[in-house]
């Protein structure tokens, strides 16, 4: 009973014609259209519609018309350019003919005569001064005289002496220097007032003592910083150091802290 039910529900055999038509259409599509259909397609292609032909004709006419207009405009511009060139050539020919005529006339005409000098405005020259030259051989001394040489030598000597006297009266520039000395004591028990008194007791030509002050060094020890002005030709730093260090009871050393030219 189940087999009959299966056959009843199976419908492939009843639709066999449909399957056959589908198979036929499949093979026709794989092998190409039938000859009759190909002929119909060719006929349709060979006979375009009337509207298409008319549109193509209009397009062809419009394109030919625009091309003709462009060609006409170009021809007109070429004609104008040709006329301009012709005019330029004619002008050049006329100028060349005029030039040739002028050259021929100049070649045939004789050279112009020179303008006489009499027509030129006379140039008035300044009157020359008449110099009277006396040719007296007796008054000319070719070798000079000894008296003139002596006078020139005396004049030269007088001028040298006057210059030397003027130079001697001028005061000479004295070179001076400002020196800052650092005078160091032995210890903190040294009497700094006595030390400064000893330093200022050093007197010599060209030496002038200035201001002084005590500068702390360390551990309660202070050094004496004193300023002086010296003449370079008379006083030097070595002499100052030697004179100050003679006070051995108070002075340990002397250093130059600053040295400036005045």
From TrEMBL:
Residues 176-262 form the Translation elongation factor EF1B beta/delta subunit guanine nucleotide exchange domain. Residues 142-167 form the Elongation factor 1 beta central acidic region eukaryote domain. It comes from the Eukaryota. GO terms for molecular function: guanyl-nucleotide exchange factor activity; translation elongation factor activity. Residues 26-77 are annotated as: Disordered. Residues 67-77 have a biased composition (Basic and acidic residues). InterPro entries: eEF-1beta-like_sf, EF-1_beta_acid_region_euk, EF1B_bsu/dsu, EF1B_bsu/dsu_GNE, Transl_elong_EF1B/ribsomal_bS6, Transl_elong_EF1B_B/D_CS. Residues 33-51 have a biased composition (Low complexity). Residues 52-62 have a biased composition (Basic residues). Belongs to the EF-1-beta/EF-1-delta family. This is Transcript variant X2. It comes from Nothobranchius furzeri (Turquoise killifish).
